[in-house]
Structures are given as C-alpha cells and as structure tokens.
Design goal:
- The protein is of the alpha+beta class.
- Helix content is 25%, strand content 51%.
- A four-stranded mixed sheet has the order 1-2-3-4, covered by helices on one side.
- The longest helix has 9 residues.
- The chain starts with a strand and ends with a strand.
Length: 71
C-alpha cells in the first residue's frame, strides 16, 4: 500500500507552504508548493539534506518536486 499525507503550513520565513508526501515501501516522494520564488528556492536547496536524512533511516527519496502555487 501507499501512504499519503498533505500538510499546509504558514512559516515565518517561507510563508504558506503546502507539502504532499507519499510512502510506498521504502520509497518516499515529496511535493512542496509555495507562492514565493525565494521560498521555492530555499526548499529546493535543502533537497540533498532531506535525501541524506531519509537514507539514515533506511528510506530512499524517489522524487522531490518544488513548484509554485498554481491554485
């Protein structure tokens, strides 16, 4: 089975960010959506750190997508 979660946060530096997560076995997919270009850049900059943190816990980051707020 695939486990899914959505989370919307209002963060002091990044503003409103919406995350979607999917876990299938040991594979993790992450989507992040933010309105501000600076927020998107900061989220994308930390993708390698997320990949490393997941690997330390026997999980693989299958995909990460950071996009704009196209609502």
């Amino acid at each position: 089975p695939t486990w899914r979660a959505r989370l919307r946060l209002e963060l002091p530096r990044l503003g409103e960010v919406e995350f979607s997560l999917a876990l299938h076995g040991e594979q993790v997919s992450v989507g992040a959506r933010a309105a501000a270009a600076a927020s998107r850049a900061e989220l994308a900059q930390h993708a390698a750190g997320l990949r490393a943190a997941l690997a330390r816990n026997a999980l693989a980051l299958e995909r990460i997508e950071v996009g704009g707020d196209e609502r």
